[in-house]
Amino acid sequence: MPPQTLDARAGAEGLTATQLAEQYALQAIDRDGYHPVLAAELSMQHSVPKTSWEYTVRKALTPRPHHPTPRPTGGQP
Hints:
Layout: E1 9-10, E2 13-14, H1 17-32, H2 38-46, H3 50-61
Antiparallel strand pairs: 1-2
Helix pairs in contact: 1-3, 2-3
């Protein structure tokens, strides 16, 4: 199966290689779910060292800080 391509643009700015790899890892996790050999599979598919994918998958699975919607401080709701 040929590798899937990703859009390397986020809005008007391009993505770094790390951001693009993380995006790909997140898409693979969303599609197939996380499993212990995911980094090895991505490494084989894309000819990138397994250790790089291990880092990328760990980073993709790390919870992001939540930025709640600001609450109105005055006036009517």
